[in-house]
Write a structure and sequence with these properties.
Elements lengths: L1 H20 L7 E6 L8 H14 L6 E6 L11 H22 L7 E3 L4 H13 L7 E6 L3 H9 L8 E5 L2 H4 L7 H6 L3 E4 L4 H4 E3 L4 H4 L4 H14 L10 E3 L3 H8 L13 H14 L2
Parallel strand pairs: 1-2, 1-4, 2-3, 4-5, 5-6
Antiparallel strand pairs: 7-8
Helix pairs in contact: 2-3, 2-10, 2-11, 2-12, 3-10, 4-5
Length: about 280
């Protein structure tokens, strides 16, 4: 029995060490520009997972900007009433997740479309604070227009210290005011990783571990993805739990292109990081 107990302890210790090694974020700060008011509701789950991952990895203080609903021109695929609903849902996903997990008290979550000027100024301020040793990593989790407006409003000499992380041309090419090439023409660094839908848009049962978890913080994250799944604007999320944009956060907290971050993160990677945090912060 002693040998079995010792073996179990060793396995746990090794597992904990491996998990701890996952967190290896590069220098700098991080900003997230998400949509969620567009036809696809995936940013609800993506937002909840992104904030939970940052808190669980101890990097919540490095988040200096978070805006949502960055789809500035409504398309016919979503009605005015449905879009208004999404704005409310996205704000709730931000505010409720941040309060439940803690650590984001100094951050204001901005509605990019309804608080356009404030959002542009806030992101431009973060850009202007960038240096070689303290770059700004912008997570493009929606259309690129807000990023373009902020770059236009910021100091040109600071753009070389800005890195824009992207995983899908559906975001890059969806701008109403800026093309992806125009974003790159500002002189920022493009950091491109593979399509995160491949491993992070999964069948609902793969998130049963969160649905059935006893901790309400984990359950709340699951609820956000479930709200997206039952959304009635699009059909392609039915039966799926999608936090694909959070894959860019997973990539950043595990090293990005500086320390070899996870380019194709999985639900298991998310699970390990969140549950490791919960186990130590009951």
């Amino acid at each position: 029995m002693r040998k079995i107990h010792l073996t179990i302890c060793i396995v746990i210790a090794i597992t904990s060490f491996i998990n701890a090694q996952k967190i290896n974020a590069p220098n700098g700060r991080i900003a997230v520009v998400a949509d969620g008011n567009s036809p696809d509701p995936d940013d609800l789950g993506g937002t909840a997972v992104s904030l939970a991952l940052l808190r669980a990895s101890g990097l919540e203080n490095r988040l200096v900007h978070y805006s949502h609903s960055c789809d500035l021109v409504r398309v016919n695929r979503i009605s005015e009433k449905a879009e208004v609903e999404r704005h409310a849902l996205m704000q709730s996903a931000c505010d409720v997740t941040a309060r439940r997990w803690g650590g984001f008290d100094k951050l204001t979550f901005l509605d990019a479309k309804w608080q356009l000027d404030a959002t542009i100024k806030d992101l431009a301020k973060a850009i202007n604070a960038s240096t070689e040793n303290n770059p700004l990593w912008i997570i493009e989790a929606g259309e690129p227009d807000i990023i373009g407006f902020a770059l236009e409003a910021s100091k040109k000499q600071k753009h070389k210290f800005v890195k824009v992380v992207t995983h899908h041309p559906a975001n890059d090419d969806a701008g109403d005011f800026y093309t992806w090439q125009q974003i790159l023409d500002f002189g920022v660094e493009e950091v491109r990783i593979p399509d995160q839908n491949i491993k992070l848009k999964v069948n609902l049962p793969e998130w049963d571990w969160a649905k059935n978890h006893k901790d309400p913080r984990i359950q709340q994250v699951w609820i956000q993805g479930k709200i997206a799944e039952v959304d009635d604007v699009v059909k392609f999320q039915k039966g799926k739990w999608d936090c694909s944009d959070a894959g860019m956060i997973l990539y950043w907290i595990t090293g990005a292109n500086i320390h070899g971050g996870l380019k194709q993160g999985t639900v298991e990677d998310v699970k390990v990081i969140l549950l490791d945090y919960i186990s130590g912060n009951n």
